[in-house]
Amino acid sequence: MSTNVDQYLMANKDFFPEENMSLLKEKLGSMDKNRFGSISSLSLKDPKIILGAAVLGGPFGVDRFMLGETGLGIAKLLTLGGCGVWSVIDWFTAMKRAKTANFEAVMSKI
After folding, report:
1. Whole-angstrom Cα distance, residue 42 to residue 35?
2. Phi-psi region for residue 69, left (φ > 0), alpha (ψ -120 to 50) or beta?
3. What are the respective helix, strand and coil percentages of the chain, to the nearest 5?
4. What is the pLDDT of residues 25-38, one digit of tens each?
5. Confidence of residue 1 (pLDDT cuts 50, 70, 90)
6. Which residue among 13, 35, 39, 52 sits deepest, i.e. has the most Cβ atoms within 10 Å of its Cβ?
7. What is the pTM of this model?
């Protein structure tokens, strides 16, 4: 089982915050195979795609909608990215938010 966990983490290392990798490895290592299979089939958000969405569609809240943050996406859309300020801030935080969302999605399945 540890081989499967190591392979999963190596394949998806760019999708999770680096500081949470040891916790994730510990939690995944203690799972049974059936539950680990459901984790392996989760659709993870690519942080680079989210960053691209923040840069190209930032004023319209595209990045927030992609992360499932519908309320913030609507707020960002209605304010045109907080008159651009919110959009610029999201350029620098989009990848971290995507990685955190992936980590939370996996932890909720454990």
Report:
1. 11
2. beta
3. 80, 0, 20
4. 998 888 887 788 78
5. low
6. 39
7. 0.88
